[in-house]
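Title: Prediction job returns without error message
Component: structure pipeline
Severity: low
Priority: P3
Assignee: unassigned

Description:
Job completed but the reporter wants confirmation the result is attached to the right record. Sequence as submitted:
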Amino acid sequence: MNSTVGQNTPGVNASPCLCRGQVWSAQALLIALKIGERTLARWEQAGLQRLQPATDEVYYLSDDVIEIMRLPSEKIPKYLPKYKQKLKGK
C-alpha cells in the first residue's frame, strides 16, 4: 500500500478525493471535507481511529473515514463535550 500524506493539500486540488490507502491530517480533512471539529469528534466517538505518530499532529486513514461516512446518521452519536460525558457516566 502506498500511503501518502498531504497529497490532497487544500488549494492544490479543488475537489477533495478520499482514495483508499491515503493518510490525512486532521486539519486537511476539516478543510477538504468542509466539516467542523465537532463532526470529527463525533466520528471518533463512532469508531474513527486516530493515527498518532511521535508528533503532535493527528492523522486518519482514508479507509476509516470512508467507512464512518457510510454509516447511517443514527449510528453517529451526538456530540457531547468531555465534561458532560463524565457527568453522564456517573
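Comment from assignee: result matches the submitted record. Residues 37-45 form the longest helix (9 residues).
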